[in-house]
């Protein structure tokens, strides 16, 4: 197999994406390939060298957009809008994702490891880097306290608690950075 950037491989019983590779031929040694691999489940990036003759197992990854329907206990339900197929994903399988920003009706890409035509294994899904959510509950702020640059705790429509500027009110819409869980701005709707 030709090792190249963008390829998905199975190595040490885990699935990785090759995010960088360099073919190296030292003057008096065997050629090898220096790679940077990203673990698709944990997001961890590591560097590894493979001999030019090393055999890696290529894997097929499929992604498809699904609409988030609802959560019941520890199971998340999604639907493919084109086929109306529904899938269930247990919370314990979801790693490295801020699921607290998942809003009903949101369409997100879900990634699967395709073992055969009938067998697909859930790997991960991607939440957008920013989301717009409604403020459902806020702490009370005394009049005059909004002059200072103070923050208060709000509860968003997904149930997520977040520190935001004190001028926000119930019913306001806010743009949130899902990567670092931070308030970006108030949105007028």
Which keywords apply here?
189 residues, mainly beta, SH3 type barrels, OB fold (Dihydrolipoamide Acetyltransferase, E2P), 3 domains, five-stranded antiparallel β-sheet
Overview of the molecule:
This protein is mostly beta strands and 189 residues long. The chain has three domains: 51 residues, SH3 type barrels (Roll); 65 residues, Nucleic acid-binding proteins (OB fold (Dihydrolipoamide Acetyltransferase, E2P), Beta Barrel); 58 residues, OB fold (Dihydrolipoamide Acetyltransferase, E2P), CATH 2.40.50. Helices cover 0% and strands 53% of the residues. The chain is built from no helices and 15 strands. It has a five-stranded antiparallel beta sheet with strand order 4-3-2-1-5, with no helix packed on it. A five-stranded antiparallel beta sheet has the order 8-7-6-9-10, with no helix packed on it. A five-stranded antiparallel beta sheet has the order 13-12-11-14-15, with no helix packed on it. A hairpin with a 5-residue loop joins strand 9 and strand 10. The model has no long low-confidence stretch (mean pLDDT 89).
């Amino acid at each position: 197999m030709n090792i190249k950037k963008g390829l998905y491989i199975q190595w040490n019983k885990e699935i990785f994406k090759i995010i960088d590779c360099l073919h190296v031929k030292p003057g008096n040694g065997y050629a090898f390939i220096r790679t940077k691999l990203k673990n698709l489940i944990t997001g961890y990036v590591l560097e590894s060298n493979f001999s030019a003759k090393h055999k890696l197992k290529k894997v097929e990854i499929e992604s498809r957009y699904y609409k988030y329907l609802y959560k019941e206990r520890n199971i998340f339900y999604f639907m493919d809008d084109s086929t109306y197929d529904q899938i269930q994903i247990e919370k314990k399988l979801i790693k490295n994702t801020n699921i607290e920003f998942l809003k009903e009706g949101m369409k997100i890409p879900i990634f699967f490891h395709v073992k055969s035509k009938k067998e697909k294994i859930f790997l991960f899904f991607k939440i957008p880097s920013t989301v717009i959510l409604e403020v459902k509950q806020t702490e009370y702020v005394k009049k005059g306290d909004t002059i200072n640059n103070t923050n208060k705790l709000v509860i968003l429509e997904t149930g997520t608690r977040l520190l935001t500027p004190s001028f926000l009110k119930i019913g306001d819409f806010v743009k949130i950075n899902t990567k670092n869980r931070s308030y970006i701005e108030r949105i007028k709707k």
